[in-house]
Amino acid sequence: MTEFQHIRYRIELPNGSQEVFDFQFDDRDFRLRNAPPAEPPFWTQLEFNQCANCPLDPRDHPHCPPALHMADTVERLAALVSFDIVSVTVTSLERTIHAEVSAQQAMSSILGLIMATTECPWTALLRPMARFHLPFATEMETVYRSLTMYLLAKEVADAPAQTGFESLESLYEKLHVVNRDMSRRLGAATRSDPARNALALLDSYSTLLPAAIEGSLAELRPLFDSWKTPLPKPI
Question: Of 55, 68, 128, 178, which shows the fewest CB atoms inside 10 Å?
Answer without folding.
Answer: 55
